[in-house]
């Protein structure tokens, strides 16, 4: 090959290599919508979604009051609330929490020791009244014993709640898995008590999530109970912090922007936006325009909880079927 041909061939190869290494043109912009930013000063609270949210929550609480007063059904003419079951506005009004409060939490709440802490952890891991009655009968809330728990609970079915997922170590049934999680916490209860007593709700959730088997949801359930005991009754963030899950994030997006996908509960950049949005709704709930002054007042827990239920309500209005039906009683 002549030098001229070699040079021509080599130059052609280099050009081809250069073309391959050239940066690819920018792709078309992603279809994912950029997340909007907002200033709370711009949210005056008069939007249709805000009014719809508070109308839903007021009607849900009114259903409870009508039932408690002995008024015959139907207790609502809202077609969605009449068809499906929604959680109460205040968690303290839920049947399971009422049983736990009366039989376990309140008798131990004023005790200046750690019994109410572990009783709450144990109960919420099962979260079932029938199981709670057995645990109470055999004094397992105040004096946990793995062998005794195994013996008295082995034939109880169902054992745990169906309201949320209880995760236990792989390869174990629910009873053995829960015993394996509760027992180490019981042995370490004094340290756990010192880490939670007098803390904020947020910090207490972090402490609990560092324990095996306790995720964000379960930790928040336990902390919500402990807020009504001497451990966390003085928590400084009851009016400024809540733990929003995916349902609450969808609900807040619907209320503020009419878009259930506006926020991601797991995205760090959305965390403070969720807190600010919930605090905004809490401020509105202090006014009689949105929540009657003679009714119990809200904390951040009620905002988070109600947003989750509102997201379900909106889904049902659009035709989505919900799991639990509501029995309104005899119709007059």
Number of domains: 2
Estimated helix fraction: 40-55%
Shape: globular
Average predicted local confidence, pLDDT: 87
By secondary-structure content and strand pairing, the structural class works out as: mainly alpha
First CA to last CA: what distance? Answer: 104 Å
Low-confidence stretches: 17-35, 37-42
The overall strand count is 0
Instruction: Characterize the main sheet.
Output: none
In DSSP terms (H or I, runs of 4 or more residues), the helix count works out at 14
Q: Which percent range describes the beta-strand content?
A: under 5%
Topology as H/E string? HHHHHHHHHHHHHH
Radius of gyration: 27 Å
Q: Oligomerization state of this entry? A: single chain
Protein model, in words:
It is a single chain. With 332 residues, the protein is mainly alpha-helical. It folds into two domains: 46-66 and 81-109 and 230-321, no CATH class; 111-226. The protein contains 14 helices and no strands.
């Amino acid at each position: 090959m002549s030098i001229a041909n070699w040079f021509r061939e080599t130059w052609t190869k280099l050009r081809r290599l250069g073309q391959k290494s050239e940066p690819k043109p920018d792709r078309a912009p992603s279809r994912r919508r950029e997340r909007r930013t907002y200033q709370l000063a711009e949210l005056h609270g008069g939007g249709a979604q805000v009014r719809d949210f508070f109308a839903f929550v007021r009607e849900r609480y009114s259903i409870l009051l009508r039932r408690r007063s002995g008024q015959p059904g139907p207790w609502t003419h809202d077609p969605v609330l009449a068809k499906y079951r929604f959680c109460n506005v205040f968690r303290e009004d839920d049947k399971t929490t009422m049983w736990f409060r009366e039989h376990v939490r309140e008798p131990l709440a004023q005790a200046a020791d750690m019994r109410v802490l572990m009783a709450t952890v144990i109960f919420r891991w099962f979260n079932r009244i029938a199981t709670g009655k057995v645990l109470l009968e055999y004094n397992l809330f105040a004096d946990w014993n793995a062998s005794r728990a195994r013996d008295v609970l082995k034939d109880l079915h169902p054992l745990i709640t169906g309201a949320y997922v209880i995760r236990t170590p792989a390869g174990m049934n629910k009873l053995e898995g829960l015993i394996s999680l509760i027992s180490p916490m019981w042995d370490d209860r004094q340290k756990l008590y010192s880490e939670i007593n007098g803390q904020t709700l947020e910090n207490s959730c972090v402490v609990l999530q560092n324990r095996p088997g306790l995720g964000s949801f379960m930790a928040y359930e336990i902390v919500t109970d402990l807020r009504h005991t001497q451990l966390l009754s003085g928590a400084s963030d009851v009016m400024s912090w809540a733990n929003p899950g995916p349902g609450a994030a969808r609900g807040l997006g619907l209320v503020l922007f009419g878009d259930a996908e506006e926020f991601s509960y797991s995205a760090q950049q959305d965390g403070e936006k969720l807190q600010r949005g919930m605090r905004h709704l809490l401020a509105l709930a202090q006014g009689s325009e949105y929540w009657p002054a003679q009714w119990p007042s809200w904390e951040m827990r009620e905002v988070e909880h109600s947003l989750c239920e509102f997201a379900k309500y909106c889904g049902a209005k659009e035709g989505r079927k919900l799991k639990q039906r509501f029995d309104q009683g005899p119709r007059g």
